[in-house]
Structures are given as C-alpha cells and as structure tokens.
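Students often ask why we bother encoding 3D structure as a string. The short answer is that it lets us treat folding as translation between two languages. Here is a chain of 107 residues written in the first language.
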Amino acid sequence: MGRSGASAEGWPGFQRLMSEVGLDHVGIVLGIKISRLARSSRDWYQLLEVCGLFGDPDRDADGIYDSQNYNDRLLLGLKGTMSCCRSLCFTAQFPNYFVRNARGFPH
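And here it is in the second language, the structure alphabet:
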C-alpha cells in the first residue's frame, strides 16, 4: 500500500522488461492484457518503440502483434490508451474507494 501505479518508477518488473528488450534478450513479449504492462501512456509507448526497434512481437489474449507493422502498432497504441483511460475514469469516479477500503468502511 502507498505505492503509486502512475509510472514505471518503482516497478522493477517493468524496468527489467524494458532493459531485457533493449538488450535484445527478448524474442516476444507475452501477456493476457499486454496493454496493462505499462502504468502510463508514456511507459506503454516507450515499450512499443523499443519492441519495434528490435522486431519483438507482442502477444496477448487477442492475438500476436508485429511491433514494426504500422497497423499493429496503431492497435496496440489504442489498447494502451484505452487502458489508461479506464484507469483514469475509475480513479475519478471513485476517488475515496481505496481510502475507504483501507479504513474498513463498507462499499
């Protein structure tokens, strides 16, 4: 608790993924919802850019995406943007949700 999910800072798993992709040690990035790997649009687009540089495909439950293909990058970009928007909408809609849960108040 008390750890922000606003960016990749403080998330060693995502930082390690970025490092490994950047060192060309990764052949494919897998995830059930790959757009949830990044905590912000900036982090997400940075991951897409690095994957595109090294030709690493991205795979989630919906399919395999070629990071060097314009249409696939566009789709992945939209998925990341939608993920961030959902997160922002949830935060705006329920600003005290987590505080209330931490204090033991009912929903």
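Translate back mentally: The chain has a mean pLDDT of 77. Keep this in mind for the problem set.
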